[in-house]
Amino acid sequence: MSAKVRKSYSIGEKLAALDFVRHHSVEETARTFRVDAKQIREWRKNEGNIRKLSEEPNGKKRSRLQGAGRPLHSDELEERLRTWILNQRQQRIRVSRRNVQKMAQKMNIEMSLSRDFKASNGWIDKFLSRNHFVIRSKTSVCQKTPAYHLQKLVSFVRYVRQLRVKHNYPRENIFAMDETPVWLEGSASTTIAQKGAKEVPIKSTGHEKVRITVILTGRGDGSKMKPYIVIPRKKPISELDNMNDVVIQYNTKSWMDDFLTEDYLKRVIGQFHFSKRLMVWDAFKCHISKSTSSVLRRMGIHAAVIPGGCTGLIQPADVSWNRSLKSRIQDKYDEWLSNGEHTFTANGNMRPPSFVQLVDWIRESWNSIPKEQIEESMKQCGITNFIDGSEDDKILCFKPGRGLNQGLTLLRSECAELQNEQESDCDEDMMAIDSDDDDDISWCASDESN
Questions:
Q1: Is the pTM of this model over 0.70?
Q2: Residue 181: beta bridge partners?
Q3: CB atoms within 10 A of CB 3
């Protein structure tokens, strides 16, 4: 008897062995196909079913007959467990293999099923496969479920709409901005490697700490403002003086403060303007400080502050721009690693790309993001949608499957009379900063910061 080499055979391979055994002995067929003779005899007994199954679409690729394999422990337990996992994930709660195994054992006891059920590692593998579940890396981190923020999100969209009705901003006077750090390494953790490789190392160049802060600003009509780039050093870089389509500032801390926020507003948004403007930004400390509020008042800019914890749901940059920008920069960095000119320290360590080169990558990446993406993202976040509510179905966080299915209904009910309003006072749950001309300056539905 030949040694076992394979443990699973497709229907097509079984048919080949059955055709061969018609003209040869079972032992010779077993040697030729390197299968136990006992297995050949089993196939001969089931030849009718095997040939019938081979006539079905993709039937020859299957390895088992209908009804083969261990039956399900319990259809009801399977469905209850699947529903439990979906409910947990809808609340953004982490579900591990061990969690599923423990819950399966608990349900098995509650349903008074078999005492021999162990929810083994083999069982969990097959359960996940049957129900189309896979192990995924996290794509975002949150402290509260989306449903917790439902009323805040609806109130924010409504407030923005009230300001638009009251002040009638042109779309080009509606701005959305966000600060985002740009790291050379750390964002890319995947690579192509051979299947089955036990280790998949990625070489570090030591550039993980190279970071600059970038402020991206888009307008309601889809146009893009110059990126405001904060470089972590004191001494200016002369090569950047002639780069006209970016705004450069230097600060050793490399993050925004009141001074840099005022500088950004004056150099990017502009001081001199004869019509009212609206700025949509998050609840970062320097955005809601008294100093910044004073600057906004002088410049005639109203601020709508995105509630804390909601930026990943309703901030255009977080929803759309940042990933596009960083993906493009990562591509340029990878290309530089592979084909660029490198210099090395005395110890043989590769120097990172210069700030001039990094700024150029940011400039090119931002310019390559299409205008349509900026314009659409403003609608996806409920900022520039039609006042009559006809575009509310474009608001991304209220779409089905995102845990905020009631958001659209709630928004429409609260904004039913807004279309005919020409002036409206902010609700009691909105915080308006006093001003000399009694204009609405800012609102934040939460004292949480991002």
A1: no
A2: 213
A3: 6
